[in-house]
């Protein structure tokens, strides 16, 4: 259960991170509507430039972190482990056959 959940969370971090990095003002607008629903004029609020840059940076880092997790999950080391296990199984089978022939 942990592996599929990890992959799902990493993939969603990549997707939402890329969206936030590409269109941070839109992300801020949507978040503002959700978080400031009870306020009188939330549409009049304008984010400062540093805040937009911070959202863009945070989103890019989230996408990078998700991509790293996915790379670790699906990376070449997983294939290498499977190949090593196959080699060990083949060697064990060869030893068993040699013992059976004697």
UniProtKB/TrEMBL annotation:
Region (Disordered): 78-102
Domain of life: Archaea
Biased composition (Acidic residues): 82-93
Pfam family membership, one: DUF6199
Residues annotated as domain DUF6199: 13-72
InterPro entries on file: DUF6199 (IPR045679)
Protein name as it appears in the record: DUF6199 domain-containing protein
């Amino acid at each position: 259960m942990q592996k599929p959940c990890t992959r799902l969370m990493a993939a969603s971090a990549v997707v939402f991170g890329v969206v936030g990095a590409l269109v941070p003002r839109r992300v801020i607008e949507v978040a503002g509507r959700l978080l400031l629903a009870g306020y009188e004029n939330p549409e009049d609020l304008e984010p400062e430039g540093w805040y937009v840059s911070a959202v863009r940076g945070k989103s890019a880092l989230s996408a990078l972190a998700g991509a790293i997790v996915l790379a670790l999950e699906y990376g070449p080391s997983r294939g290498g482990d499977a190949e090593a296990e196959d080699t060990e199984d083949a060697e064990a089978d060869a030893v068993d056959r040699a013992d059976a022939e004697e």
